[in-house]
Amino acid sequence: MANQANVSTLLLRNVPLFASLAEPQLALLTSVVNRKNFPRGATVILAGGVTDSLYVVISGRLKVMMSDDEGREVILAILGPGEYFGEMGLIDDCPRSATVVSLEPCELLSLAKRDFKKCLLENVEMAMTVMRGLVKRLREADRKIGSLALMDVYGRVARLLIEMSENVNGQKVITKKVSKQDIAKMIGASREMVSRVMKDLRTGGFMEVKEGKLVLREKITAID
User: Fold this and answer.
1) Up-side HSE of residue 199: CA atoms within 13 Å toward CB?
2) What single string gives the DSSP state of each residue in 137-204?
3) What is the CA radius of gyration of the chain?
4) What residues contact residue 107 under an 8 Å CB cut-off, 6+ apart?
5) CA–CA dist 104, 102 (Å, integer)
6) Regarding beta strands 62-67 and 53-59, do their DSSP bridges make them parallel or antiparallel, or are they unpaired?
7) What is the DSSP-derived secondary structure letter of residue 96?
8) What is the per-residue pLDDT for 4?
């Protein structure tokens, strides 16, 4: 699955995590970064496993999840191009805290622990980028905890849809397909309840399906 030959400085320059590196550093990085392809449904990292690499998403989407002994799952995040994962264990030397599974065929870059730490030590801006990423994830975790404690399912669904949407011609549009089952796992509700809420939101004019995409109406923010 690994292929170093096709890793160019141009590819690395377009990755936000590496964008601050000088050209000589990028050139050195091309010799230690591995390019890997994973099919849909592949487990990239497993909770409890040894932390040995950082992964950067070049294409495709993946879900970050946790599960219990009974097979119940909670989806912590869905990652797409430009995002990265696996950095926490590289910093605190602890085992993987979550499992990451590909939702569709993915292309990733992997950077070994030793090389990742070397990059951080030699580039302050990259270290700051990692710190900002960790703070962002902490804020997102705080919001989710608050949502679970203070919002009903309607509010949690509405907030998630808004967070997933992109601005397309002045409208909030969800361009990436996410199953109701995955939405349920992201907000701590049953699939049946999510289906009911989605139906109510469409009936109430809070959103509509147009050309296969979910378009959110402005008034959905009143639910959030």
Assistant:
1) 6
2) HHHHHHHHHHHHHH--HHHHHHHHHHHH-EEETTEEEE-S---HHHHHHHHT--HHHHHHHHHHHHHT
3) 19
4) 35, 36, 37, 38, 57, 58, 59, 60
5) 5
6) unpaired
7) P
8) 47
Burial of 48 (0-12, 13-18, 19+ CB in 10 A): exposed
C-alpha separations of 82 from 58, 61, 85, 158, 162 in Å: 6, 10, 10, 25, 20
Whole-number pLDDT of residue 1: 52
Q: Could you tell me how far CA 172 lies from the centroid of its own chain? A: 19
Phi, psi torsion values for 175, nearest 5 degrees:
-90, -25
What's the confidence (pLDDT) of residue 194?
A: 94
Determine the pLDDT at residue 195.
94
- Give the pLDDT confidence score for residue 81 in this predicted structure: 94
Q: Give per-10-residue mean pLDDT for the chain (224 aa).
A: 66 90 89 93 95 95 90 90 93 93 96 92 91 91 83 92 91 90 93 94 91 88 75
